[in-house]
Amino acid sequence: MNVESIKKYIQDNPEIDQLKKENYLRVLSSPDITKAEIAEILDELEDAVQDKIDGVYAGAGVVLDENDPEYKKQYQKMTDEIKAAEEEFNLAMDGIGSEMDGIETDTSNQLDDIKLQSVRDSIGG
Amino acid sequence: MEEQEAKAIESSQVEKSSDAGQQERSLAEIGAARRESVLNSGKNMFSSLKNKFSAGKEWLAKKVSTTVDYAFAAPEAYQRGKNAVGEVAGNIKNTVGESVEDIKSGASELRSEVGEEIGKGVEYVKGGVRNAKEKVVGGAKAVGEIGLGMGVAAMEGTRNKVNEVVTSAGEKYNELKGRGQAAYENLRGRVGGAKNKFFEFVNAVKERQLNERIAGQEAKMQEAQAEIRRLMQKKMEIAALRSEYAF
Questions:
Q1: For B47, which of A10, A69, B110, B175 is 20 to 30 Å away at the CA?
Q2: pTM, whole model, 2 decimals?
């Protein structure tokens, strides 16, 4: 699915609030839109549909028993995966932060060396 | 939060919130809040990293500017040196000029007193002084040119070195930014995937229940239909009895 087809889906969907529609289309029209931003919009669209599905089921009197062992198992599986993803993300971001600090220090040192050499050169040292 | 979730999963379907109002939350609501919180926190972390990248690039630009200022300061110093040499050369020229004037006026006096031969000697001296003056000025210019050349070369060398460092740092920053972006996308993908799997299960169970309800309703209706048919049969039997006895 490319951005254009997402835009068309949003434009042609009468169930999406007009204000949200405009906001989504504005973000999707940005030339430097990222995959994560597209994913955010798709998540929101999907959540809205899921809310409606839940509402229809509730209206039909279908409500899940959250004490059901299978339900609990599936729920636990989901929260475990979220936790693992979060931990992996935090670890990756910490690593990136540290590497960035390292780049700053290295670059600063290299530029200081160049400056020093430039001064030496100018005084014929 | 995680402990609350664990307790909620283990003991019952609901969690008593510690907030005022003692609102009960279902596991689905707790899960949705957890997903939202993880994704928001991830988004904030990534935004903060992007801000750090911007700050890093601003810092780099400032640092580079300071370094390059030094590189430019060098040829400026040479230029100042050249000007100073030129000034000295000018002073020498003036001094020499003044000396020539003195000699000229002296020569004029001598000429009148001693005659033409001495005048020729003065002209010879003047020529020698002129040559000396030109050599001094030429030498000063040459010193200045060499100095300026050295300054420009130093500036170019520094600029190249700075460019190398900046390019390398920029590439590293971009690589890290790409990795940050990928980590955030991975987080969204995994959380979204986990959520979708869960809702696939939930939706499937609900669909089954709905089908069971429909089937249940249908069976009830069919039961009612059968019962009505049975009762209608009774009615027909009664009607037959009625006609038999001519009531």
A1: A10
A2: 0.63
